Amino acid sequence: MSINERVIMTNAEFKAFAEDPGNEDVIIASKFLPESRVSYPLRRRIVSYLSHIVTKVLFRLPFSDTQCGLKVFNRKVLDREWKSKGFGYDIEVLSVIAREDNLTLRELPVTVTEREKSSVSLKSCFKTLYELLWLKVALRPSRGSVCE
After folding, report:
1. Inter-CA distances, 84 with 15, 33, 133, Å
2. How far is CA 144 from the centre of its chain?
Protein backbone atom coordinates (compact mmCIF):
# COMPACT_ATOMS: atom_id res chain seq x y z
CA MET A 1 0.00 0.00 0.00
CA SER A 2 1.48 3.37 -0.98
CA ILE A 3 1.65 6.40 1.30
CA ASN A 4 -0.94 8.10 -0.98
CA GLU A 5 -3.48 5.44 -0.03
CA ARG A 6 -3.09 6.20 3.69
CA VAL A 7 -4.44 8.90 5.98
CA ILE A 8 -2.50 9.66 9.16
CA MET A 9 -4.36 11.25 12.08
CA THR A 10 -2.21 12.77 14.79
CA ASN A 11 -2.28 15.57 17.33
CA ALA A 12 0.46 17.94 18.49
CA GLU A 13 2.28 15.60 20.86
CA PHE A 14 5.27 13.72 19.51
CA LYS A 15 4.30 10.16 18.80
CA ALA A 16 6.00 7.30 17.01
CA PHE A 17 5.06 3.68 16.56
CA ALA A 18 7.41 1.44 18.52
CA GLU A 19 7.46 -1.04 15.61
CA ASP A 20 6.71 -1.20 11.89
CA PRO A 21 2.99 -0.48 11.39
CA GLY A 22 2.53 -2.90 8.50
CA ASN A 23 -0.24 -2.73 5.89
CA GLU A 24 -3.47 -3.18 7.83
CA ASP A 25 -6.52 -1.07 6.94
CA VAL A 26 -6.54 0.51 10.40
CA ILE A 27 -3.53 0.96 12.69
CA ILE A 28 -4.10 2.43 16.14
CA ALA A 29 -1.38 3.49 18.55
CA SER A 30 -2.01 2.58 22.17
CA LYS A 31 -0.49 4.11 25.30
CA PHE A 32 -1.83 1.19 27.33
CA LEU A 33 0.18 -1.62 25.74
CA PRO A 34 3.07 -2.88 27.90
CA GLU A 35 5.69 -1.98 25.28
CA SER A 36 4.55 1.65 25.06
CA ARG A 37 6.68 4.44 26.53
CA VAL A 38 4.70 7.45 27.74
CA SER A 39 6.13 10.61 29.28
CA TYR A 40 3.16 12.46 30.81
CA PRO A 41 2.77 14.31 34.09
CA LEU A 42 0.54 12.56 36.65
CA ARG A 43 -2.42 14.93 36.00
CA ARG A 44 -2.36 14.12 32.29
CA ARG A 45 -2.12 10.37 32.98
CA ILE A 46 -5.22 10.59 35.19
CA VAL A 47 -7.20 12.54 32.55
CA SER A 48 -6.10 10.04 29.89
CA TYR A 49 -7.16 7.07 31.99
CA LEU A 50 -10.55 8.61 32.88
CA SER A 51 -11.17 9.40 29.21
CA HIS A 52 -10.31 5.81 28.39
CA ILE A 53 -12.83 4.49 30.96
CA VAL A 54 -15.66 6.81 29.79
CA THR A 55 -15.09 5.84 26.15
CA LYS A 56 -15.00 2.12 27.02
CA VAL A 57 -18.26 2.36 28.99
CA LEU A 58 -20.11 4.38 26.34
CA PHE A 59 -18.91 2.67 23.17
CA ARG A 60 -17.55 -0.76 24.21
CA LEU A 61 -14.89 -0.62 21.53
CA PRO A 62 -12.44 -3.51 21.23
CA PHE A 63 -9.38 -1.22 21.32
CA SER A 64 -7.19 -0.66 24.37
CA ASP A 65 -6.73 3.06 23.60
CA THR A 66 -8.96 5.22 21.40
CA GLN A 67 -7.53 8.61 22.39
CA CYS A 68 -3.82 8.24 21.71
CA GLY A 69 -3.90 10.63 18.78
CA LEU A 70 -1.94 8.52 16.29
CA LYS A 71 -3.93 6.46 13.83
CA VAL A 72 -3.29 5.35 10.26
CA PHE A 73 -6.14 4.46 7.92
CA ASN A 74 -6.44 3.09 4.44
CA ARG A 75 -8.04 6.03 2.59
CA LYS A 76 -11.06 3.92 1.55
CA VAL A 77 -11.98 3.44 5.24
CA LEU A 78 -12.57 7.17 5.71
CA ASP A 79 -14.34 7.76 2.40
CA ARG A 80 -17.87 8.38 3.76
CA GLU A 81 -19.96 10.98 5.59
CA TRP A 82 -19.22 11.47 9.30
CA LYS A 83 -21.47 13.13 11.90
CA SER A 84 -18.81 14.44 14.27
CA LYS A 85 -16.46 17.30 13.42
CA GLY A 86 -14.70 17.77 16.74
CA PHE A 87 -13.15 15.73 19.55
CA GLY A 88 -15.46 12.80 18.89
CA TYR A 89 -14.41 12.30 15.28
CA ASP A 90 -11.92 9.52 15.97
CA ILE A 91 -14.35 7.76 18.31
CA GLU A 92 -17.02 7.87 15.60
CA VAL A 93 -14.58 6.46 13.04
CA LEU A 94 -13.47 3.68 15.40
CA SER A 95 -17.10 2.91 16.35
CA VAL A 96 -18.08 2.48 12.72
CA ILE A 97 -15.03 0.51 11.60
CA ALA A 98 -15.18 -1.81 14.63
CA ARG A 99 -18.45 -3.17 13.17
CA GLU A 100 -16.96 -3.91 9.74
CA ASP A 101 -15.78 -7.50 9.35
CA ASN A 102 -13.77 -6.97 6.19
CA LEU A 103 -11.14 -4.62 7.66
CA THR A 104 -7.76 -5.59 9.04
CA LEU A 105 -7.05 -3.85 12.36
CA ARG A 106 -3.88 -3.63 14.42
CA GLU A 107 -2.94 -1.92 17.67
CA LEU A 108 0.68 -1.01 18.20
CA PRO A 109 2.71 0.28 21.13
CA VAL A 110 3.71 3.92 20.93
CA THR A 111 6.29 6.34 22.27
CA VAL A 112 4.72 9.61 23.48
CA THR A 113 6.39 12.75 24.78
CA GLU A 114 4.05 15.51 25.92
CA ARG A 115 4.75 18.99 24.65
CA GLU A 116 5.44 21.68 27.23
CA LYS A 117 2.00 23.33 27.14
CA SER A 118 -0.89 20.89 26.99
CA SER A 119 -4.33 21.86 25.69
CA VAL A 120 -5.98 19.49 28.17
CA SER A 121 -8.06 21.58 30.56
CA LEU A 122 -11.20 21.06 32.63
CA LYS A 123 -13.15 22.94 29.95
CA SER A 124 -11.81 20.69 27.17
CA CYS A 125 -12.67 17.60 29.25
CA PHE A 126 -16.31 18.73 29.62
CA LYS A 127 -16.49 19.64 25.93
CA THR A 128 -15.20 16.18 25.01
CA LEU A 129 -17.64 14.47 27.39
CA TYR A 130 -20.54 16.44 25.89
CA GLU A 131 -19.51 15.45 22.36
CA LEU A 132 -19.11 11.78 23.32
CA LEU A 133 -22.60 11.73 24.84
CA TRP A 134 -24.01 13.44 21.72
CA LEU A 135 -22.18 10.93 19.53
CA LYS A 136 -23.51 7.98 21.54
CA VAL A 137 -27.05 9.16 20.78
CA ALA A 138 -26.26 10.09 17.15
CA LEU A 139 -24.78 6.66 16.44
CA ARG A 140 -27.72 4.73 17.85
CA PRO A 141 -26.79 1.32 16.55
CA SER A 142 -28.98 -1.44 15.30
CA ARG A 143 -29.34 -4.48 17.56
CA GLY A 144 -26.20 -6.55 18.06
CA SER A 145 -23.68 -3.87 17.09
CA VAL A 146 -20.51 -2.90 18.92
CA CYS A 147 -21.89 0.39 20.30
CA GLU A 148 -25.06 -1.07 21.78
Report:
1. 24, 27, 12
2. 22
For residue 148, tell me if it sits in a domain. Answer: no
Strand partners, 39: 113
Number of structural domains the chain divides into: 1
- Residue 146 domain-assigned? no
Percent helix, percent strand, percent coil in the chain, to nearest 5: 35, 20, 45
Does a structural domain hold residue 144?
no
* Contact of 28 with 52, CB cutoff 8 Å: no
pTM of the full structure? 0.75
How many residues are there in the chain?
Answer: 148
User: Does 13 map to a domain?
Assistant: yes
**pLDDT tens digit at each of 148 positions of the chain:** 445 688 888 876 656 776 777 788 888 988 889 998 888 778 777 888 888 888 889 888 888 888 887 888 888 888 888 888 777 888 888 888 888 778 888 898 888 876 656 666 778 778 888 888 888 888 875 555 454 4
Question: Which residues of 89-145 form beta strands (DSSP E)?
Answer: 105-113
Q: Which domain holds residue 41?
A: 3-138
DSSP state of 3: G
Cβ atoms 132, 57 nearer than 8 A: no
